[in-house]
Design goal:
It comes from Bos taurus (Bovine). Keywords: Hydrolase, Lipid degradation, Lipid metabolism, Membrane, Transmembrane, Transmembrane helix. It holds the Pfam family Patatin. By secondary structure, the chain is an alpha/beta fold. The chain has one domain: 3-Layer(aba) Sandwich (Cytosolic phospholipase A2 catalytic domain). About 45% of the residues lie in helices and about 15% in strands. It has eleven helices and nine strands. Strands 1, 2, 3, 4, 5, 6 and 7 form a seven-stranded mixed β-sheet that branches. The chain has a two-stranded antiparallel sheet with strand order 8-9.
Length: about 300
């Protein structure tokens, strides 16, 4: 129920009552001061500060490449406001390409298809004795990243890696040399046993897949647009349909508990057929395009 309130007293006619509010104060309320303008500019700058984050996902990274292609071809309006890119595992690899060599996305596709085909041909996949997963991955990274990739990525690329001793996450964004950048990217993609037995050494310590501790980095300043091939509470992702929506948080990534996501998880480590990977690429492209349209960034 509404409470009854007393009626307001009638203001006496004639000389206006002194309210203690000066004309200057009233004008300041109408016309913003220099200080309030600075505050508005700061808020506007934060709203324009956009980051992109690509989730850890193994061979589902082909989805990320589809999304990156859509952003590069139809999201220039968005990309000009992007201050930083972040990622874990395969997500960090795609983030590095989008920042340093976006014109090589098609070349990345070819490498990914060939890499997956090579693993499918092995008797026990990546676990086949004698097969060097990390050497093959390094060759692809080396061939795609430009000579000045570390300079282009410095301060703008945030790579999630996990320390084997402390089991804590670290987001690396400083790359003094190209080799530093390559090592950090390889560390973020190192899944013990699957990728080998010896973790990647960087700055005197050993590091493994960033997906173990932070599979979807969200940066502290501005808005982080999240991208993942797993259906969930994310900006760009597949939209699984179903009556019951149960979500589970996996190292900073809130995903839908669904059969489709379980199938995707299996495909992340066991690369699917070429045809399935092509469909994943197209799905990433379409989902990212849909996001750009919704946010009025598509062109």
């Amino acid at each position: 129920m509404f409470q009854k309130t007393d009626s307001l007293p009638t203001e006496p006619q004639g000389k206006p009552k002194n309210t203690g509010v000066s004309s200057l104060s009233l004008l300041q309320g109408i016309f913003p001061t220099q200080e309030s303008n600075r505050g508005l500019a700061h808020i506007e700058a934060r709203m324009k500060h956009i980051n992109l984050s690509f989730a850890a996902c193994g061979f589902l990274g082909i989805y990320h490449l589809g999304a990156a292609s859509a952003l590069y071809n139809h999201g220039r309006k968005l990309l000009k406001d992007v201050k930083a890119c972040a990622g874990a595992s395969a997500g960090s690899l795609v983030a590095s390409v989008l920042l340093t060599a976006p014109q090589k996305i098609e070349e990345c596709n070819k490498f990914t298809y060939d890499f997956a085909e090579e693993i499918r041909r092995q008797s026990f996949g990546a676990l086949t004795p004698g097969y060097d997963f990390m050497a093959r991955l390094r060759s692809g990274v080396e061939s795609i990243l430009p000579a000045n990739a570390h300079e282009l990525a410095h301060g703008r690329l945030h790579v999630s890696i996990t320390n084997t001793r402390t089991r804590r996450n670290c987001l690396v964004s400083s790359f003094p040399s190209r080799e530093d950048l390559v090592k950090v990217l390889l560390a973020s993609s190192f899944l013990p046993i699957y990728a080998g037995l010896k973790p990647v050494e960087y700055k005197g310590q050993r590091w493994v897949d960033g997906g173990f501790t932070n599979s979807l980095p969200v940066l502290p300043v501005g808005r982080t647009v999240t991208i993942s091939p797993f259906s969930g509470r994310l900006d760009v992702c597949p939209q699984d349909k179903g009556r019951l929506h149960f979500y589970v948080s996996i190292t900073n990534q809130e995903v839908l508990l669904s059969v489709a996501n379980l199938v995707r998880l299996n495909r992340a480590l066991s690369p699917p057929s070429r045809r399935t990977m092509e469909l994943l690429y197209r799905r990433g492209f379409d989902d990212a395009s849909r996001f750009l349209l919704k946010e009025n960034w598509f062109e």
